[in-house]
Amino acid sequence: MKWLTFTRILLVALLLLAILCLNLEKDIFKATLYIRNRTRTYGLLDQKRTAERIQSERIATLKSYCRTNDTKTTEFPTRRRFIVNERYKLLYCQVFKTGSTTTLTILHNLEHNDRRNTHDMREQLNDLPFKRLNTYSDEEVRFRFETYTKLIIVRNPLERLVSAWEDKFSYAPSRFGYRKQYHSMLKTLLSNTSNTELGPFKLLPEGTDNRSYPIVPFPAFIKAVGTNRTEWQDPHWQLISDLCAPCQIDYDFIMHTETIAEDYQLFFRKAGIVGREYLIPEVRQRKGDRLFWDFYKEIPMEDLWQIKQKFKVDYDMFGYNFHDDIVRFFSR
Question: Membrane-crossing residues (predicted)?
Fold first, then answer.
């Protein structure tokens, strides 16, 4: 009988211990979950604060440059360069080779409450064209500059030049006719270089208007862009400071192509765009370092210096650093 009583007491004790352990386990789980959620919350807050700090620094850098430099001679950009988004009251100064196609797709989807990819968006442009500032009256233009959220997207000058050359001279030159239009850039190299080979760049013929135009190799392109010859200038590699008049226009938000996905997350919050976050591009691994090495390793330092002098205003306005770029070359 005593043995049975002891057994019952032992079972009750074990049951109580099990209940205690179960409750303790639940408490530990709740505490762990709470800590994880708090950590995640603080992590997101830190990311937001970091993004906001970076954005503030970009605006401050631009304003500081404008205060200390004479920019009165800068021409005001053509109104057509500005895309207007009426649904969210946005003004975007379109700059080629800074992720502008991605941005146009986002703005078109925002304006028409849609979710089209770039190809489908372009298919709709005849029926649903972009609103551009040149279609507004002077009074309407003034109102939008004063009240709309104004966006500009910039890019490291050296990376932007690579992107322009690849797109216009290498990937699809026949579609754009850039080999024909700028074939005279070859003059910068042909004086002391073989007509059939320029370092690693072949002179590949392309038929246009029953004529063959050789590819403009990247070294020739860089030499040409570094000059001030008007026939070799083009909006796809023109200074952003000349295209969008950053000192004349009080931009509310500055994106960098290098961080465009992260920047869009903050921009959506600042512009009051809610529930459309699926339009924001995904964060992808950048190929900037590869571009730097693969393309600029063949460029003489004197040509790089010419580019640095040519794009000095863009470097200074938007917080890029030419010397950091050179370090990237030699760190490979």
Answer: none
